[in-house]
Amino acid sequence: MFTAEKEELEQLGAEITTREIRQQPELWQETVTLYHENQTALENFLKEVQAKAQGKRTRVIFTGAGTSQYVGDTVVPYLRAHGDTQAFSFESIGTTDIVAKPEDYLIKDEPTLLVSFAR
C-alpha cells in the first residue's frame, strides 16, 4: 500500500487513507511541539477549569469520529493511570454518539470539559 503509486491507490480507492496514514508521524511531532509551546497556557486553563468546578470532579470527554475517536481511546487509559484523577475523570465517547443522543452523555449539572479531535 505504501509503495504503490498515487494512480494505483486512486484506482483501489485507497489514496486518501494512505495519505492520511503517511502524514501521522509528522502530525504527532507537530502536536508535541505545539503542546510544549503552549504548556503553561494549558496548565493555566486546566487550573481555571478546576476552579470553576468548585471542588467537584470535572469530567473530561475526548470525542471524535473514526480514527479521531481512536485518539481519545488511546489517551484515556494513560490519563487514568497518570493524570490527576482527583480533579478529573477521563472518558472517550464517539462524536456520533453524542450528537445522536446528547442527553445520554452530557449531564447538566456536572462540570464537563469536551475535547474534540478532528483532522
UniProtKB/TrEMBL annotation:
Sample GO molecular function, one term: isomerase activity
Gene3D superfamilies: Glucose-6-phosphate isomerase like protein, domain 1
Keyword Isomerase set for record: yes
Keywords: Isomerase
Gene Ontology BP, a term: carbohydrate derivative metabolic process
InterPro entries: SIS_dom_sf
Annotated protein name in UniProt: Tagatose-6-phosphate ketose isomerase
Originating species: Enterococcus faecalis
